[in-house]
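Objective 1.3, modelling of assemblies. Example input:
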Amino acid sequence: MTRFLGATQTLVADSLIGFVAAHEELVAFGRAAKFVRRRALHPGKVAVISGGGAGHEPLHCGFVGAGMLDAACTGHVFTSPTPDQILAAMDETDTGAGCLLVVKNYDGDVMNFEMAAEMAAGRHRVETVIVEDDAATGPSVRSRGRRGVAGTVVVEKILGAAAERGEDLAALKALGEGLSGRLRSMGVALRGVTSPDTARATFALGPDEMEIGVGIHGEPGLYRTGRAGPAEIVRLLCEPVLAQLAPLDGARPLLIVNGFGGTPPIELNYAHALARAFLRERGIVPARALVGTFVTSLDMAGLSVTLALLSPAEFELWCAPVTTPALVW
Amino acid sequence: MTRFLGATQTLVADSLIGFVAAHEELVAFGRAAKFVRRRALHPGKVAVISGGGAGHEPLHCGFVGAGMLDAACTGHVFTSPTPDQILAAMDETDTGAGCLLVVKNYDGDVMNFEMAAEMAAGRHRVETVIVEDDAATGPSVRSRGRRGVAGTVVVEKILGAAAERGEDLAALKALGEGLSGRLRSMGVALRGVTSPDTARATFALGPDEMEIGVGIHGEPGLYRTGRAGPAEIVRLLCEPVLAQLAPLDGARPLLIVNGFGGTPPIELNYAHALARAFLRERGIVPARALVGTFVTSLDMAGLSVTLALLSPAEFELWCAPVTTPALVW
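Predicted structure (tokens):
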């Protein structure tokens, strides 16, 4: 409804041109602009490759760089990249140690990354890690299991850091699979996504309504309810996240408060304070927090809370240096 | 209309608690939480201090850290910090070389920072730099001259880097004043700011309208017009910016595309591509660009374009290392 965008045909391609131009010291277009790659590859290291539909920026291209991804493939808005794009990224960034594909759990993404891996047989050694952190979905709700949402940042950062340290393909796959049970997210929307094609919101919320358990593609949530106060909203997000997390002795909790695109920093910081208070009452003190706009759903107003119970080794990988357009430390 | 926020009484304080907790390795609260300061001060260096009303996050607290600000004072939403807050920041961060105050050009901010400087007489050497980059305003429109908007990031970064290199108070003031004529911004809104007090938009735009020349406090713009296509919108922002910039031989142009809070990265990157195309047609190639959400107006949908014609020395200061919550390189 309130979008700046007009030219839906070229929106994704033009936006990527603007992105690469803003970060040309870190990233470059791959062949025929099929993907975005790290400017300087690191020979002998496993190539970590991800991707998905556009509309989730800065995910995934914003995480291409030293200590995280080697390449990211972007499809049309909310549409998987093609196997051809993914294969091109493998061809250009595999320097001999193989490719690790990090894939959010959606039918289209899983299918196209699988197809690319099959096409790569004989040319690349390939392993795949599926991200499935959305506490609002599960095997009982969707045949493919839980959706991949903001927890994708955790998986890409930790696997990227491990690859940078020289871990091999099998070790990276085991690391990614080990994270799966200890990583959950839950989101709330106060205004739906404006579809670039129709300029209409994908679901309409009244001024006194909110949608709990939303995805990042304009999917309706688990349920709609009356607008609660901020502390209550945060409770409705944190409780299902905590309930689904597999406990881990000696865990270093990582907390992420992620904006969906239409929510400003003042609100995200506020939600972060509330989430910390909620966790503190339950004896949980985050060892590190990340607050900002990392996995969006175009201009959706709302946010998600992610909690990861990391092992000390995983936590060290989270804290390792990273230099990407959207994450630097 | 679509806000997450509820508790307006404690919103700013709670949001700052969340902010400091997320970045505790870089920043800390000053005495009585009156301001946010750099965790590790750098003795003998001029203290660079800024501040303003809340609602513009990550400005100013997000720019506290090595290579930029020593302290930032936050008032209530769209309300200047008090002289008492500013004086407390000076007392705690002046390590002997004096204080440089960076102030956006609004009556309330200018008055309160002036009052703090007077109260500091005999205790601190103080100089002030006023930021006035908004091409939509000027001496003919408002008695105080042009408003300070997204160009504030340029002034804070360059003066912060110069202070870090040991420049003294007089040199920093001259550097700041020198930038003034070569720094301009212009903004567009597609949806007004939702006031936290009333939960209503400060100005109402129809779905086919846009407001050109908006400020960052919900002020209406220079004019309202029908919704144009993206390239036309960018032209309406870039033309007045270019027209008002004092030329500089050998300038290194810096381009900023800044989101106002309710606009996601995909749109900002797209606008960046369009702004580059506009400038290229006029023979201007940005030496560096910054694209993201840096100076907000709560959840306003829209963006601004800033252009700075930097001297090679200023450009080097822009590129110098910085480690703050919102800007790292």
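Chain A touches chain B through 59 residues (CB under 8 Å).
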